[in-house]
Inverse folding.
């Protein structure tokens, strides 16, 4: 039997660490001020792409990737922790993110990427999408029965799957994608809904209902998923309330 004193001391030490963090966080930055700081920086970061900065001028191995660095780091953590057999990505764009995921899978020596878009994008140099043995490109409507069947044929029924939704950001479309692809995620896995920051959360206030509102609607009738706020630990994220973990 382990020494109970050591166990108690370890518990006290851990609790003290948490308390110290909470006191520091609220002593120097109130919750209201924290949100204001995050929102202001978010607006600065988003709008600066118009001047060739931030997410509008980001590349992975030479290919454009329109994501926040903080989210890319979180994806890396989720992929390592959950070790999916497949990533299903709705919204290929320039395929920089698909190549990023494939690169992580190369490091892990496991996993494949299925990336879907309604059309084939090309960048300013008219450069083709990256070719990689771990990437499968599918072209068509992400929510069609034909596409769902095509994806299921690749993944099978027993695979561990991570789903990332980053195509059309209007509420109705996002909700349709969630209803289709949540079925691919097994317990402990993630359904990630990108770009919930639009429609005033806190940027692009005139966007109209989007991913944020789709998540709210989805969770009203689906108790298998919960919002994992621990994945927003870097404060700045494209995906507020968008990291959905399957708990049952």
């Amino acid at each position: 039997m382990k020494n109970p004193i050591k166990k108690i001391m370890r518990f006290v030490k851990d609790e003290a660490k948490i308390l110290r963090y909470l006191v520091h966080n609220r002593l120097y930055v109130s919750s209201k001020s924290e949100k204001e700081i995050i929102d202001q920086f978010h607006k600065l970061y988003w709008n600066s792409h118009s001047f060739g900065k931030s997410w509008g001028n980001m590349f992975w191995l030479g290919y454009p990737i329109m994501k926040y660095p903080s989210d890319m780091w979180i994806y890396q953590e989720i992929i390592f922790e959950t070790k999916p057999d497949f990533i299903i990505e709705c919204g290929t764009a320039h395929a920089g993110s698909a190549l990023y995921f494939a690169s992580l899978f190369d490091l892990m020596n496991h996993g494949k990427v299925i990336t879907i878009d309604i059309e084939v994008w090309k960048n300013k140099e008219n450069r083709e999408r990256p070719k990689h043995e771990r990437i499968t490109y599918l072209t068509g409507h992400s929510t069609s029965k034909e596409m769902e069947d095509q994806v299921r044929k690749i993944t099978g029924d027993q695979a561990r799957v991570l789903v990332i939704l980053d195509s059309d950001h209007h509420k109705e479309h996002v909700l349709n994608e969630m209803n289709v692809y949540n079925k691919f995620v097994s317990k402990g896995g993630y359904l990630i809904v990108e770009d919930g920051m639009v429609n005033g959360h806190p940027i692009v206030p005139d966007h109209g209902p989007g991913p944020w509102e789709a998540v709210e609607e989805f969770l009203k009738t689906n108790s298998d998923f919960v919002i994992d706020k621990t994945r927003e630990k870097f404060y700045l994220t494209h995906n507020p309330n968008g990291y959905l973990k399957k708990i049952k």
Observations:
- The CA atoms of residues 13 and 19 lie 10 Å apart.
- The radius of gyration is 20 Å.
- The chain has a mean pLDDT of 92.
